[in-house]
Amino acid sequence: MSDRVIVVVRAGALTTVQDLGRPGYAHLGVPRSGALDPPAAALVNRLVGNPPDAAVLETTLSGCALRPRATVTVAVGGAPGPVSVGGRPAAWGAPVVVPAGELLEVGAATAGVRGYVAVSGGIAVEPVLGSRATDLLSGLGPAPLTDGTVLPLGTPAGPPARVDGAPQPRPPAELVLRVTLGPRDDWFTAGAVRDLTTRAYRVSPASNRIGLRTEGPALERARPGELPSEGMVLGAVQVPPDGRPVVFLADHPTTGGYPVIAVVRAADLPAAAQAPPGTPVRFVPVRRR
């Protein structure tokens, strides 16, 4: 067996393999999946010399611990938190050499939600439909990691970046989501549309990779009944029967019957991936382009 593997010693609350995802398969009912914070995943790949489509690990809140069987270069980014190698403090947001057999410990996030761990050569699990991403909704890709999982690594593509540290945006104290109203805003009262764009919401603890759920004013319907199922897009703000908006993230369903009152700009979704429960949320309307 090749020593180009890494062993999961502590999987953490939810650690998955992610890459750029599976866009283009919605007509088959397959979500796009992929890293919830693509800029953070891309940065840690650059730091270790990987191409942008290399698979990384996405952690949730509690980090993880890994032990490589060969010497590797790693970088940890996304949600900030402590990093150590062999029990000694190591850099966050910079390339770090982990000798064979040493323990890389990624601690609990001190801010934000999702951390990213890139390893030189990338995580080389078998791709499904062209992607190595774990999709929690459809079950495609590798299962969420558990203690003892052994992950194969690819061949390093290039040298690590020559930087002491790379700047990364901090998780938001307030999540501001720019939205384009529609396509089903006419299913809601004028007061509900006003509430969405003027009232304060909070990130719900029930949020996950499928959607960011909110707590706040319930949005009142102007029409009874339900829509026939129609296509859903990344960033769609769907309103279920309880009236609280849900922002669809990477593992969202490809169709749905609840009305979509607005769609969030794609550029604002990485911040949504890093907003912990209780973070204030504002939906800011912008004109259609």
From TrEMBL:
The keyword Membrane does not apply. Residues 27-289 form the Carboxyltransferase domain. InterPro entries: CT_A_B, Cyclophilin-like_dom_sf, PxpC. It comes from the Bacteria. The keyword Nuclease does not apply. Keywords: ATP-binding, Hydrolase, Nucleotide-binding. PANTHER family: 5-OXOPROLINASE SUBUNIT C (PTHR43309:SF3). It comes from Streptomyces eurythermus. This is Biotin-dependent carboxyltransferase family protein.
